[in-house]
Design goal:
Oligomer: single chain
Strand order of the largest sheet: 1-2-3
Number of strands: 3
CATH class of the domain at 228-327: Mainly Alpha
Bound molecules: s-citryldethia Coenzyme A
Largest sheet: 3 strands, antiparallel
Distance between the termini: 39 Å
CATH architecture of the domain at 228-327: Orthogonal Bundle
Order of helices and strands: EEEHHHHHHHHHHHHHHHH
Shape: globular
Radius of gyration: 22 Å
Helix content: 40-55%
CATH superfamily of the domain at 228-327: Cytochrome P450-Terp, domain 2
Amino acid sequence: MEIKEKSLEYAPGLEGVVACRTRICQIDGQAGKLYYAGYPIEDLAQNSTFEEVCFLLWNQRLPRHDELENLEKIFRENRSLPQEVIAFLELAPHTAHPMDALRTIASLLSCFDINLEKSPEANLQRAIFLTARFPTIVATFHRLRQNQKPVLPHPSLGFAANFLYMLFGKEPTPNQAKVMDAALILHADHEMNASTFASLVTASTLSDIYSAVASGIGALKGPLHGGANEAVLKMLMEIADPANVESYVDQALTKKVKIMGFGHRIYKNYDPRARIFKEYARRLSERTKFSRFFKINEKLEEVMQAKKGQHGIFPNVDLYSGIVYHQLGIPADLFTPIFAIARVSGWTAHILEYWQENRLFRPNALYEGPAPRAYVSMGQR
Ligand code: SDX
């Protein structure tokens, strides 16, 4: 049989490569627009809830009233962790990064899944259970590492409010709950980002949904991706004052160090999620002494616009999210886990969709090493 060589084009970072078809999420990077199954992110952040958005991502349509109530009920009934998982979190080093704890527990949960069924329905149920449990994992680990007793999930609070309740041991105000809910909506999905792609690569081998989600968590952790929100807060602390912004940016750009919270592979315009986060950050910052961070960010925007705006480098989702979480009293190393709490809905939606017409991901590499040659024995080297 004759094997014809296909002409292969090298695309560093797979830029411009279309990896799959999807009905879940659409980005118009030039216009700075984002849609979940056709609905603009601005509408969803203002009018929807995270529970409703989960349904939307998994089904690509908004739920009827009874369907939403049913999903909310399943979420509430499946928030608790197996006792063994809590025991593991107690034993795990409490100095660990919460993303490492979350990745490990997402993986550990597979050991408690005794259902052998691999149908789409069974996998959707796993997606719902995983999403229900992520906030409990993060809050439980955080409480334990502070030598505090974990707070059991609240039987009647919504998804976002319950997370804050489990974290702090008291019910959030309606405003705090709304801000957290909107933050989860804004982070729920983003087309073929690195962590979603990582989870699809694992899923494409017909591995299981837990392994795929664990791959996603691992990929999200890096500072070029979800880890940027934590890195932004560190950067703001380092800059310390709006007057230092210009010299900080100059030094960073000279050393080719990336300014966290800016730039995006797809957006060559303002990330629409950053606009919404900025407004929440502004409202929360007005009332407290931490408005200094907000002022630094505004100055950063101004300086970066002048120096990098013509190159299409604008604020991304992570620039203002950290300030919002900080204002809610959440420690910086929980910012990326919060991203994961939201994004597990998107990862699983894409995994379930991809399995409908699965094909193994297996790209090529452009070989640049030595030509074929004879083995050289140890004594001859
Ligand atoms: C997320 O993909 C998604 O959808 C991700 C996400 C999601 O919801 O899933 O939106 C979430 O991950 C947001 C991004 C968070 N990361 C950061 O904020 C880290 C800082 N930003 C970058 O490092 C960078 O912009 C990336 C990684 C986000 C995207 O970079 P690309 O597409 O790989 O581009 P690049 O690194 O090759 O940069 C291209 C040029 C370079 O200049 P030149 O060498 O061509 O002269 O742009 C410059 C870069 O130096 N550049 C920046 C910059 N980002 C790009 N220069 C300074 N500061 C920056 N932040």
